[in-house]
Specification:
Layout (H helix, E strand, L loop, with lengths): L1 H35 L25 H17 L7 E5 L7 H20 L2 H14 L4 E7 L3 E7 L4 E5 L5 E11 H8 L6 H8 L6 E10 L15 E7 L8 E5 L4 E2 L4 E3 L2 E6 L1 H4 L1 H22 L3 E2 L19 H6 L3 E2 L7 H18 L2 H9 L10 H7 L1 H32 L15 E5 L2 H8 L2 H17 L9 H11 L10 H47 L1
Antiparallel strand pairs: 1-14, 2-3, 2-9, 4-5, 5-6, 6-7, 7-8, 10-11, 12-13
Length: about 550
């Protein structure tokens, strides 16, 4: 109990420190949730279920459509469940043997099957949505006996984190609510507090208890020990109201923390920007513009009126009958107070301009184009085509995609490989690569499109050289065609294993040259043989003529 109290005290201290840093960005997160998607603000001070009344401020749905386009675009462009988005490579191996490559391909196939059978892609959808709005996501990749892997996602506002010296999230604290029945089932009766035991005895099974949890790197462990309490990563659970007893204290060899962020700066773990935060000013303006436009439209066909007292209130509904005395009719009907008609077309143009800025902030033009041309099925599309169409957008997205690779996709792939090894799901590796590390290369559409941007310079250079060669053919001597081909294939994502080894190419060329030389010699020798035959025939005819004399 004393040891538990010390651990909880230390965890609470670190939690308060992280809470202070989160407090700086929390107001902006609340604003984003309020103005774009109020349902996502339930852990940001807007109630357990969100405040449905706040959705009434959303007079224009463009921001929600824009962020959903971005969420779907990231899903389809980075980790589509319908197409390969990563491949495995052997660390330090430029060209593995056929047996080694077959093993890598089989590992990839099994990993894709495991991912498809888990909740990974559902979790990624939530992840990309949080990134689009807030620029952050918190989750944990766990092992599962049933599905091999399971991703636990936490809503923004329910978790805190800290990063290591490499800028990666290595500490995660979160809170959750569990029913009494769930607590007893998960942590067993001996580990829960006396309060929970009493609630259990009183049959209060569905009453909720707030639980705190933490994943932290252990600094005071025994590296030679195999016990769970001495593993590199510590996992702790405790009831928030209990300060002297842990619900659970375990250990992991692999942290599995998923903490991607949109854009960060040094010494600040929380993102400094996101599409939702960048568009917030335009989003607020757009809602005001839409309300003003609606008011102007109403003023045009339903203006405020003035006139003499009437027998009863006039109705302007179609088919309405208004009773009036002759005296009322003689006085004239109601008249508009204002003598002007608002220019609704100008207001509409202003609204459309703001909508365009919101869509641009969410990269909707990029992902709309990609969606229309096949990023999520449909027409066939190449990464080169995407790069050519939206090169400037992809350049801007470059740092973001790199951050997502390091903070999200790499841990997912590495973690899946780790748990599949642990559960002995992977095939036995060839003896030649036992103990060799495995690296990850991303081959998603957006990853290839990023690399394909460099292809344009190759194509422009080749085009220019082709033009120059018409004037000076010797300029072709400056190009190394073999190296250009390999560089081009690498940048567009062509499988390098499909290209012949340079030594094999050289051997093939030498054989072809030798065959060509032999054919030339045979071709040169043929006229000489024909001439010799003719001479021989002429000599024979001459001998026949002499014999006749």
């Amino acid at each position: 109990m004393e040891r538990d109290a010390e651990i909880i005290k230390a965890l609470d201290f670190r939690n308060k420190s992280m809470q202070a840093r989160f407090g700086v960005v929390r107001p902006s997160f609340e604003d984003v949730a309020h103005w774009i998607d109020p349902a996502r603000g339930r852990h940001l001070g807007q109630g357990d279920n969100g405040d449905a009344r706040k959705q009434q401020v959303l007079a224009d749905s463009t921001p929600r459509k824009a962020y959903r386009i971005l969420k779907s675009g990231l899903m389809g462009g980075l980790s589509s469940p319908s197409r390969p988005w990563f491949k495995l490579k052997l660390a330090g191996y430029d060209k593995p043997s056929h047996e080694e490559q077959v093993w890598l391909d089989e590992c990839q196939r099994r990993m894709y099957e495991v991912m498809a059978g888990s909740n990974l892609y559902n979790a990624l959808s939530q992840c990309y949505g949080d990134l689009a709005l807030f620029g952050t996501y918190g989750g944990v990749l766990r092992g599962s006996r049933e599905n091999i892997i399971h991703v636990q996602s936490y809503p923004v506002g329910s978790y805190l984190y800290a990063e290591n010296e490499e800028g990666l999230i290595d500490t995660l604290h979160w809170r959750l609510k569990m029913t009494v029945r769930q607590l007893v089932k998960y942590f067993v009766m001996d580990n829960v507090s006396d309060r929970v035991k009493t609630m259990w005895k009183q049959n209060q099974m569905n009453d909720q208890v707030e639980v705190c949890a933490a994943i932290e790197q252990r600094m005071d462990r025994d590296p030679m020990s195999k016990l769970a309490v001495d593993m590199p990563v510590g996992v702790y659970y405790w009831e928030r109201s209990v300060k002297d007893k842990l619900l659970s204290r375990g250990g992991l060899s692999f942290a599995g923390i998923l903490g991607p962020r949109w854009e960060t700066v040094v010494d600040d773990p929380w993102p400094i920007s996101s599409p939702g935060r960048d568009a917030l000013g335009d989003v607020k303006q757009l809602q005001a513009q839409q309300r003003d436009k609606d008011t102007a439209i109403q003023m045009s066909y339903k203006p405020p009126l003035y006139g003499p007292p009437m027998a009863q209130k006039f109705s302007y509904l179609p088919g309405a009958y208004n009773a009036a005395t002759q005296a009322d009719i003689a006085k004239g009907g109601p008249q508009p107070i204002l003598g002007i008609r608002p220019d609704v077309q100008w207001m509409l143009a202003n609204v459309q301009e703001t909508q365009g800025r919101v869509m641009e902030a969410f990269y909707a033009d990029l992902f709309r184009m990609a969606s229309e041309y096949g990023i999520q099925g449909g027409k066939d599309v190449t990464a080169t085509f995407i790069a050519e169409m939206k090169e400037e957008k992809l350049v801007v997205l470059g740092p973001v995609l790199e951050s997502l690779d390091r903070g999200l996709l790499s841990p997912l792939v590495q973690g899946t490989f780790h748990y599949m090894q642990e559960y002995e799901i992977l095939p036995e590796p060839p003896k030649s690569i036992v103990g060799v590390g495995v690296n990850v290369e991303f081959v998603s559409l957006l990853a290839q499109a990023q690399r394909a941007i460099g292809v344009a310079s190759i194509e422009r250079t080749i085009g220019f050289v082709g033009t120059m060669a018409q004037l000076q053919p010797t300029v072709l001597d400056n190009l190394d065609g073999d190296e250009l081909l390999r560089d081009f294939a690498s940048q567009v994502g062509f499988p390098m294993k499909s290209l012949r080894d340079p030594a094999q190419v050289e051997t093939q060329r030498e054989a072809a040259a030798a065959q060509a030389q032999q054919q030339q010699m045979m071709a040169a020798a043929q006229p000489m043989a024909q001439a010799a035959n003719l001479l021989s025939e002429a000599s024979a005819r001459g001998q026949e003529g002499l014999g006749g004399l």
